[in-house]
Write a structure and sequence with these properties.
Bound molecules: iron/sulfur cluster
Order of helices and strands: HEEEHEHHEHHEEEHEEEHEEH
Shape: globular
Number of domains: 2
Strand content: 15-25%
Radius of gyration: 22 Å
Number of helices: 9
Largest sheet: 4 strands, antiparallel
């Protein structure tokens, strides 16, 4: 809740409490302050409680986020399942976290038209008291990746679920972590869940957007790069130590966390330019010579949406490639992959 909506709610609450003879006790929360308003024998009683600050470190944040992987939200619910055998499908089974200072100079560089564009909002624009930014990589389960690799032309049902219900899980998980940090006295928010988040397909003549056909005012992949999680690949996905096959969430927080560091200096450092993602791409949107054509990719995604509405997805450039499960040519990090989920 922002300051303006909180103040409005606070004033409305007081007016209601004054006007209603038997006003039931009500509580509103903002950041780490909780205000309770009650009425006893015609008198208004106002209780202000400040939560004790709990400073989580990265290890605790990692343990909390890993714990969320066991939540039912990380499994396909019966009502949503595309077939009976997909009920309970686990979508992600591993997380990796990177952190960086909110004033890291790379954020401002994202405003360049050739990177994300001038519409990119800095961490301090999202949250005035921002001290750190966290990026979390959620790795798809083996079952999701295998099902996709087995169908070269169209998305598998497992992949469609991981793309759509999986994104819902990530939104829920990032909000849960933001809530936990905020409750501990460190306001935090997930930009992609914030009402100011803008994500749109570029329309001809819209100058606010960069050269890409698709843009937004916060980019999970660029933020992950800045947070040290990995570098870009030819397909424009991000190659992490656990590979490319998964999705990202991020948080801006008032919690001052030590940066996890970037173990690279080049934007495409982890990509071996093998061209396997180009070979896998159904509409041939990727080439070694020209990189990725975002419009061709977006058009193909539209075709998958027409075929699989309300879901869509592709990601053939993330499976059956040398960067699927790690940095090509480097030792893979052990994953807690559950082969049977
Ligand atoms: S498949 Fe090869 S070329 Fe494509 S992103 Fe991965 S490492 Fe780079
Ligand atoms: S998501 Fe599909 S269409 Fe888009 S680049 Fe990757 S393989 Fe090609």
């Amino acid at each position: 809740m922002d300051n303006i909506s909180c103040n409005r709610m606070w004033s409305r609450l007081l007016l209601e409490a004054a006007a209603i003879p038997h006003f039931p006790a009500r509580r509103i929360r903002q950041k780490n302050i909780s205000i309770c308003v009650a009425k006893r024998k015609g008198l208004l009683i106002i209780h202000v409680h400040k939560a004790k600050e709990t400073k989580m470190n990265l290890k605790e944040i990692s343990a909390f986020t890993t714990g969320l992987l066991d939540a039912p939200q990380n499994r396909v619910a019966r009502e949503a399942a595309l077939s009976d055998d997909l009920v309970g499908l686990k979508m992600f089974d591993f997380v990796e976290i990177g952190a960086v200072r909110a004033d890291d100079g790379y954020f401002a560089r994202c405003r360049a038209p050739e990177i994300v564009g001038p519409q990119f909002m800095l961490p301090g624009d999202w949250l005035a008291e921002a001290k750190s930014v966290l990026s979390i990589f959620f790795k798809f389960t083996e079952r999701v990746m295998k099902s996709s690799a087995a169908l070269p032309a169209w998305p598998s049902n497992e992949w469609l679920h991981a793309r759509i219900e999986g994104q819902m899980f990530i939104n829920w998980a990032m909000d849960a972590l933001a809530g936990k940090l905020t409750q501990g006295g460190y306001p935090s928010l997930a930009p992609s869940s914030d009402r100011r988040f803008l994500s749109a397909q570029k329309k001809p003549g819209v100058k606010a957007f960069s050269n890409s056909s698709f843009t937004s005012n916060w980019s999970e992949r660029h933020v992950a790069f800045i947070c040290g999680l990995g570098t870009f690949g030819l397909s424009k996905g991000l190659i992490t130590k656990a590979g490319m096959s998964g999705r990202f969430g991020s948080l801006v927080s008032a919690l001052d966390l030590p940066p996890t560091g970037r173990e690279y200096s080049e934007v495409y450092e982890y990509c071996i330019m093998c061209g396997k993602c180009a070979k896998n791409c159904p509409p041939q949107a990727i080439s070694l010579e020209k990189g990725k054509n975002h419009s061709l990719c977006a058009e193909f995604l539209d075709r998958t949406a027409a075929k699989h509405a309300p879901r869509y997805g592709c990601g053939k450039c993330q499976v059956n490639v040398p960067c699927q499960n790690g940095i090509p040519g480097r030792k893979k990090i052990p994953l807690a992959a559950d082969q049977h989920t």
